[in-house]
Amino acid sequence: MTSLTHLLAEPRQLLSRELGRVLPESAVGPGRGSVPDGTHVGGRAAGLSRLAAMDPLAYGQTRNHVAGAVTGLSPWIRHGVLSISEVRDAALARVSDAAQAAKLVSELGWRDYWRQVHLAVGDGILEDLEAPAARGRRSPLGLVPDDVREARTGMACIDAFVRRLHGTGWLHNHERMWLASWLVHVRGVHWRAGADWFLEHLLDGDPASNHLSWQWVAGTFSAKPYLFNRENLETYTSGSHCRACPEFGRCDVEGGYDDLATRLFAESGRPVERPPLRIRPGAAPSPAPSLSPALRRPLVWLTIDSASATSPAATAFPDAPRLFVLDPAWLAAERPSVKRLVFLCECLADVPGIEVFLGDPHAVVPVHAAALGCDGVAVAETPCPRIRRGIASIQSTTPVAVMPWPPFCDRSRVRDLGRFSRYWQHVSTSALRPTAS
Predict the structure, then answer these.
(1) Which pLDDT belongs to residue 59?
(2) CATH architecture group of domain 42-126+410-437
(3) 3-state secondary structure labels for all residues of the chain
(4) For residue range 120-138, what is the model confidence (pLDDT) as tens digits?
(5) Nearest CA among 433, 434, 427 for reference residue 116
(6) What CATH number belongs to 289-403?
(7) pLDDT computed for residue 393 by the predictor
(8) Are 417 and 279 in contact (CB under 8 A)?
(9) Are the CB atoms for 99 and 205 separated by under 8 Å?
(10) What architecture is domain 146-269?
(11) Maximum CA pair distance of the chain?
């Protein structure tokens, strides 16, 4: 167990260098030691500033365009600095009619949906959730090719997306979909390899949203594969990539969906017959919040998806000590870039009295709670299997209270998570209502 608390006070350039020095090289992805560009700064103040700039009407009208009025809030949402309920409430407060914020709220709904699927299937998100909707013409590659990682494919759009992914840790959703589609369907890379690559770099890297979105593109969690073509690219980038591209007019994404499907898939792109996908909603986090032990002074365990003083565990026990444990197993699994880690540390630096350790949370959390004389541990509910296993392990020796986030919607009627449309049919009305005070 190694204390990293002192690093939170360092400016980001020094923090970046120190993280690259103290963490095992094998556990940190490419870009170690590089300083974030300042586009996204972690912490509550920066998140609230971005939230204040949100325009639900403009978002609904322009979000598909790369230069559109997107919120850019996903890194703060991913780390629990802003909850999706808080963002929804802010959106509804800025419109005269809830329908004017419906598009923005539905996109928040996708994030909630991914989390519910993650809760239901756990580590199953790392494998195909259903057979591919269309068969490729060759066996998929298990690695992202070097020319892609090095942004030298010769396609202006793809190389620009890769440079921005590596340089800033953020891409517009359309850019993510285009890059994923091209990598999977044109270059023949397995979606898991692409998803793991994204997770190294994205500041909002969340296995639920990331891996399930890649499966949606690949057609292993959707009715058909997602294909992008040059016309779509030019429409939503105002032609900024295509005009000077050496591949213009002869690139791999020329043509409409049917033409591309015929070229890229076996059996002339005909969809594969598959049974309807049914996913039963998962069980509530254990113990369920209503059954959590009554604690007076617990240790508040902040996790990667609740790395903020606004964690429901922290707000429930505002005077309790707070702890974050950087898990070597998580580092080895996701190999986050230093940019990702800097953003996380900036979020944690906002938490009064926080202590940060490098170690196994299963061991560090209960030992630290006992050393501080705490009567248990409080943690925010989460769909993350790794954290849920940690909660179960800690519960064997220490009382654990699992605290719920403010509700985003009423899921009581949801019986099947096989498709977003089924989920949204049951929750959309409640999702368009503000959180009850």
Answers:
(1) 97
(2) Alpha Horseshoe (1.25)
(3) CEECHHHHHCCHHHHHHHHHHHCCHHHCCCCCCCCCCCCCCCCHHHHHHHHHCCCHHHHHHHCCCCCCCCCCCHHHHHCCCCCHHHHHHHHHHCCCCHHHHHHHHHHHHHHHHHHHHHHHHHHHHHCCCCCCCCCECCCCECCCCHHHHCCCCCCHHHHHHHHHHHHHCCCCHHHHHHHHHHHHHHCCECHHHHHHHHHHHCCCCCHHHHHHHHHHHHCCCCCCCCCCCHHHHHHHHCCCCCCCCCCCCCCCCCCCHHHHHHHHECHHHCCCCCCCCCCCCCCCCCCCHHHCCCCCCCEEEECCCCCCCCCHHHHHCCCCCEEEEECHHHHHHHCCCHHHHHHHHHHHCCCCCEEEEECCHHHHHHHHHHHCCCCCEEEECCCCHHHHHHHHHHHCCCCEEEECCCCCCCCCCCCCCCCHHHHHHHHHHHHCCCCCC
(4) 999 999 999 999 999 888 8
(5) 427
(6) 3.40.50.620
(7) 93
(8) yes
(9) no
(10) Orthogonal Bundle (1.10)
(11) 69
The tens digit of pLDDT for each residue in 136-162 reads 888 899 999 999 999 999 999 999 999
- Domain borders along the chain are 42-126+410-437, 146-269, 289-403
Predicted confidence (pLDDT) per residue in 365-392, tens digit: 999 999 999 999 999 999 999 999 999 9
Rounded CA-CA distance 380/328 in Å is: 21
Question: Which pTM was predicted?
Answer: 0.94
